[in-house]
Amino acid sequence: MKHRCQGDSVTEDPEFTDVIENITVPAGRNVKLACSVKNLGPYKVAWMHFEQSAILTVHNHVITRNPRISVTHDKHDKHRTWFLHINNVQEEDKGRYMCQINTVTAKTQFGYVHVVVPPNIDDSLTSSDVIVREGSNVTLRCRASGSPTPSIKWKRDDGSKISIRKDVTEVTEWEGESLELYRISRTGMGAYLCIASNGVPPSVSKRIKVSVDFAPMVWIPHQLVGVPMNYNVTLECFIEAHPTSLNYWTRENDQMISESTKYKTETIPGTPSYKATMRLTISNVEKSDYGSYKCVAKNPRGETDGTIKLYKNSKMHNLSSKRIRNGACYDVDRAVSIWFDQMRASGAIISTNMILEKSKQFAVTLNKDFNPTTGWLWRWQKREGISLKKIHGEAASADSESANNFINTLFPNLIEGYKSSDIFNADESGLFFKALPVSTLSRKESHNNGFKSSKDRLTLLFICNATGDYKKAKFISECDAAPSAENEQEDITETISDLSGDEFDNYIRCDDNLVCCGQLTDEEIVKEISLEKEDNEDYSDSDAEDEIPDEIPSLPNVLNSLTTVRKFLLPQNEFIQELENIEEYVYKNYLKKITQSKITDYFKETPSSE
């Protein structure tokens, strides 16, 4: 400590009593720096911005012309404190601030002001909305300022994955100022978000829309449509195009079809936005309406069309109409439907073989000459909206969201600190030799409440560690089954584990043993159908079952393949006429062989030279 002499007295030199605190402050806030001094005497205190070499204040006076700077001091404090005030702090205010006492050898101390600035995206250096052709490479750029320097992250606005550079698979996020989209397709169309963040709230983002242009493409679900006269029919084409295409329908002579009482045209937007469905509804079909119809789609990138051939069919099949669909097997269909609904209401498990067998029984009861086939069964299921559904089993009710949360969040914490060789997994696998079927036929709109199947089984236990160098399989001779579960919603109180072999056979083969309280008998079902026929004036017992379904699976595949070759593979449209002749040949032979069930049956009988 130094002293100075003044007259006959000795006084101490001034000195700092505390350090100046470093401060981190967001831009726009106010800052106050404190400099405490004792024994100041006649000396003065000054504040300076060290990096700018600028004197800000001297004692009680403000030297700088910056209106945001001011100075105050606490003269009542034993150790006098001088406060430097900076209002509305800006990024240029950051740096070292020096408090100085003007002694012979100046005394100084420093405090640092760190100004953090929220991110701000620079629009002039960031990509705007872009329009590209399908198959092009696209690079999106995003630049942002802020302190600290912001990081850039890319996401798609709808949360879907991003297809980026050729050497990288699809990702949900991408970090970096540039996002490279390699050979972008229509699925890459949409809005991309550039998100800038640096830990100083708020983060900011910019939405960049990427439009992918391509020529229209047409998919026709049914290229051959059969309909009787005096019925309504709807033809459909699926369109993909961007920009949005101009869509219309024509007849064989390329005459455009206009909206009228005869024709109703509509285009239904789809998802994503480049998809649409074209529909043409023809009312009260007449003889002149049979023939070819074209759905045409045009946009600035190109034009395409698809052809649908409408032919006369003696009966309506799989098309909506005001008439009730009847036939020689209608009574059997209706009886099976009533029986099926009763069995499912009681909780019974129904298989396709049971449906076929039951239809035979009803045919005998109804005195119908009817032999069910798999084709009849398929059509019956389609008409009734019946599909195969799983009714019980742990896997069917697993919570995938919770499982993913465990794998991605909890599991890494559990195994932290363990070697891979010390992490083991064990699981069992076995034959449930007394279990009921796990699936049943059911109406699509119905909810299936099943019950736990029997757990009696032959069991193997498999054990291995995470490195795979330890693997064991053990046979478990005794394994207690889980308690049998009763179905609380249905009157089924026994599972298969409670049945003997004979009882099991009866349960499966004879529906009389099912618990079916309040159900109609077969005779009562037949009687109900007779009453329905009396109430239905349109019913005609002379109508015959459709000999051929309107949709032949193999024929659309043939025509689709030919269309693909014709439109996309042949250079300069070579041999187009030959392919069109083949298409016409297929169609004519389809009509000629209308009694066949499959078009492929005809090709098997036809010499390859044709």
UniProtKB/TrEMBL annotation:
SMART domains: CENPB, IG, IGc2. Keywords: Cell membrane, Disulfide bond, DNA-binding, Glycoprotein, Immunoglobulin domain, Membrane, Repeat, Signal. Residues 320-390 form the HTH CENPB-type domain. Its main location: membrane. Gene3D superfamilies: Homeodomain-like, Immunoglobulins. GO terms for cellular component: neuron projection; nucleus; plasma membrane. One of its GO terms (molecular function) is DNA binding. InterPro entries: Homeodomain-like_sf, HTH_CenpB_DNA-bd_dom, Ig-like_dom, Ig-like_dom_sf, Ig-like_fold, Ig_I-set, Ig_sub, Ig_sub2. It holds the Pfam family HTH_Tnp_Tc5. Residues 14-109, 119-211, 216-309 form the Ig-like domain. It is found in: Cell membrane; Nucleus. This is Uncharacterized protein. It comes from Hermetia illucens (Black soldier fly).
